[in-house]
Amino acid sequence: MQLGGDAPLVLRFDDLSGDWPEYEWTLVHCTADWSAASDLTEWDYLDGWAPDALDNIENSFGGSLPFAHVATTIPSEDLRPTRSGNYLLVVHAEGDPESIALIRRLVIYERLAEVEVNQRRPFEADKVSSHQRMEVEVSLPPGHRWSVPMMDIRLTALRNVDWSQAGYDIGASMVRGDVVSFNQDPQLTFPGSDRWRSADLKSLSYLAPGIKSLKEVSQGQGPSWKVELGTDQSRRFRLQGSRPDLNGAFTAHNDRFDDVELTSEYMEVTFSLAHPDFGDVPEVFVFGGLTGWSLDPSFRMTYDADEQEYRLKKWLKQGWYDYRYVTLGDGSSKYAFEADHAGTPNLYTVFVHAPAPDGSDRIIGMETLPVN
């Protein structure tokens, strides 16, 4: 979000507890690499009274599993950030900051520097077919205060919204007047990965491609709809697919009503991944926007030795979901289930960091580059 810009962010989430939800939200200013909260106090970076109540609540209708939908714009009428930088958006129970409901990363930037991002071939010959490399030029504003741009100006480079593989504290390669160039750091070279796998859960009346079964069940608790996705296979040694995706994101949607946030059903969705191997069984996670762009323990799959496949059951709201299988542990490279292709469509984002007069982190520019 641009500091002082006209386009706010919108926070949305559902509460399925059955009780009327009472939540508050606030922001925590962080260091450039997200490793800790900054030394600033709330008075230094927030205008208004924190935390702010989340009182825009609507009840769902038309579905079998009732829920409350909570939404707010950021900034709100009563709370707004006054500085750029990395922030954690924290939602907690009203009056109880220790009872945290969710945490998300939020980046607020200023348009002080001009940023140009270009795609280039990787330096290493063995990465030409599997990786994507970025080069960045930052034009500092006339009369800027950074006397040593080679040391003061740093980058964060991000592929899609995958913070786990982001490049942090990327240093400059060259300074020419007010232009700072970044082209040598290995953190500007990313594995291209593969197109995202997708689950089309928009309809309750037909089986979309990739859906194995769709059933309505009668039960006292939980969703009334159960969906089983087709069993996925490893793509490590396969050619790149061509199915369009959302760069790992998801969207709520259904084909029955217009107000999709309030009318979409919750479903019990089963993921399955074949692993016919009698050797090591690595930890495997479903990963993407649906997991908050993190290796969420609740999305860790369970291995069924009899069926020789991983399985996971999760409640998901009707819509379109991109996802990927990520392995964890010593066997992660041996048992990678996704391939890397230089031709994969990705969206790269670059943030330009510089020290503020008080030494805290400031983001003075950003730019995005869609590739392929």
Explain briefly what this protein structure is.
The protein has helices at 42-45, 149-152, 260-263, and strands spanning 9-15, 23-30, 46-48, 52-54, 57-59, 68-74, 79-81, 85-93, 96-108, 114-120, 131-139, 154-159, 167-170, 174-176, 179-182, 189-191, 197-200, 211-216, 225-229, 250-252, 266-274, 283-287, 302-304, 309-317, 319-328, 346-355, 361-371. It is mainly beta and 372 residues long.
Q: What average pLDDT do the residues reach?
A: 93
| Shape category | globular
Count, helices: 3
Distance between the termini: 25 Å
Fraction of residues in β-strands: 35-45%
Helix share, percent: under 10%
- CATH architecture field of the largest domain: Sandwich
Any idea how many domains? 3
The first-level CATH class name of the largest domain: Mainly Beta
Q: Which sheet architecture does the biggest sheet show?
A: 5 strands, antiparallel
Task: Tell me the radius of gyration.
Answer: 23 Å
Question: Would you tell me which CATH topology of the largest domain applies?
Answer: Immunoglobulin-like
Structural class, by secondary structure, is mainly beta
- Poorly predicted parts: none
Care to count the β-strands?
27
**H/E element sequence:** EEHEEEEEEEEEHEEEEEEEEEHEEEEEEE
Describe this entry's structure for a reader.
The chain has three helices and 27 strands. With 372 residues, it is mainly beta. The strands form seven sheets. Strands 10, 11, 14, 15 and 16 form a five-stranded antiparallel beta sheet that branches. The chain has a five-stranded mixed beta sheet with strand order 18-19-21-24-23, with no helix packed on it. Strands 4-2-8-9 form a four-stranded antiparallel beta sheet, with no helix packed on it.
